[in-house]
Amino acid sequence: MGLIAQPLTAEGFAPFGRVLDAAGSAPVAVNQGRALRRNLATFSGCDARFVLARYDVVSSSLPLDIPFLERHALSDQSFVPLESAVALIVVAPTAPDGAPALARARAFIAGPQTPFLYAAGTWHAPLFALGAGGAFLMGMHESGTPADCDTCELTTPLRVESTSWDAGIG
Amino acid sequence: MGLIAQPLTAEGFAPFGRVLDAAGSAPVAVNQGRALRRNLATFSGCDARFVLARYDVVSSSLPLDIPFLERHALSDQSFVPLESAVALIVVAPTAPDGAPALARARAFIAGPQTPFLYAAGTWHAPLFALGAGGAFLMGMHESGTPADCDTCELTTPLRVESTSWDAGIG
User: Fold this and answer.
1) For chain A, which ranges sit under pLDDT 50?
2) Is the pLDDT of residue B170 over 90?
3) What is the pLDDT of residues A62-72, one digit of tens each?
4) Rounded to whole angstroms, how far apart are CA atoms A36 and A134?
5) pLDDT digits (tens, 9 = 90+) for A81-116
6) What distance in Å separates the CA atoms of residue A104 and residue A116, rounded to the nearest whole number?
7) Which phi-psi region, left, alpha or beta, contains residue A17 (left: φ > 0; alpha: ψ -120 to 50)?
8) Helices (H), chain B
9) Strand B17-19 vs strand B35-43: parallel, antiparallel, or unpaired?
10) B 82-101 residues inside an 8 A Cβ radius of A
11) Which residues of A touch B21 (CB under 8 A)?
């Protein structure tokens, strides 16, 4: 049987699946207004649905203050930079009382083409993009309940002073 | 507390998560040799782990024959084209006996920047990339058992003759 391949449309493909940038995935401002998030897909096959989202993140520059950290107890969370996006990562171990151990906090720069994943339950700053900003794919399980995200306000903000990596970023 | 942001390395980030292109994600040839697959991540938080993988797919051109179809009963499966990759999609509804209903097969072209998702259980051809080929992110739940993928050999191959979409692709 011969087929003629057609342009993919949401309507034509509906019996088989979904076109992920279809209408309905309206952008939502996240990360304190630095990023626009668009959900690309949720996946069947799991109690806590898996979500794949696109984040378009505005530029931030160093030094910057981190007023709070967050963690996702139910799931690992990954970010895959698209094109030339550069992420600033701030993480902290968990202290015996469950709060972030700020004295052991660390900051990292994930260069272009460097996807990364926060282990479930790891305290981390919301996403920041350095340089020109850029887009990331975000993937994690989300239950749609408050259990998805804990936050911890910091009495004294963590400050990222600078970077040891000279990559021509802001 | 002030921090100096460091380049992200697998070793430095290990207490907090994973750098997804770390050593160990060796490329595996898939899709009848057309593509190299690298697993970027598996996610905790679900009975059937969620897998995020990168596919680097060689170029195919029309017309082409599809000798078999496959389906993933346990999970939706999505592909997100990176950069300018263009996918050829071939799908078929399921007949009452469970086999693909070939008389109602359809072919689609997903242009650059068009991520898509196969609904769980949908018969589809393995991935083909038109034009210059290119890279895709693949996401799905995988149990690691034969239940992840059914295949159906076609007595007469499906042939994709041409495309109705003139996008300068091969």
Assistant:
1) 21-24, 44-45, 168, 170
2) no
3) 888 889 899 98
4) 10
5) 887 888 888 888 899 999 999 988 888 888 777 777
6) 20
7) left
8) 10-13
9) unpaired
10) 82-83, 88-91, 93
11) 113-115
Side chain identity, residue B160:
V
Reported as half-sphere exposure (CB side, CA atoms, 13 A), residue B110 has a value of 32
List Cα–Cα distances, A6 to A90, B41, B162, B163, in angstroms: 45, 32, 9, 6
Two tokens, residue B132: 């210059």
CB A16 within 8 A of CB B122: yes
**pLDDT tens track for B16-31:** 655 554 333 566 666 6
How many residues are there in chain A? 170
CB environment B79-110: b (16+ within 10 A), e (fewer): bbbbeebbbbbbbbeeeeeeebebeebbbbbb
Peptide bond into B63 cis (omega under 30): yes
For residues A152 and A103, what is the distance between their CA atoms, to the nearest angstrom?
Answer: 15
Residues B64 and B66: their CA atoms lie apart, in Å, by 7
Which residues 38-77 in chain B show a CB within 8 A of chain A?
A: 40-41, 43-48, 50, 52, 62-63, 74-76
CA pair distance A50, A96, nearest whole angstrom: 30
Instruction: Name the amino acid, one letter, at A29.
Output: A
ipTM for the predicted complex comes to 0.71
Q: Which pLDDT belongs to residue B21?
A: 46
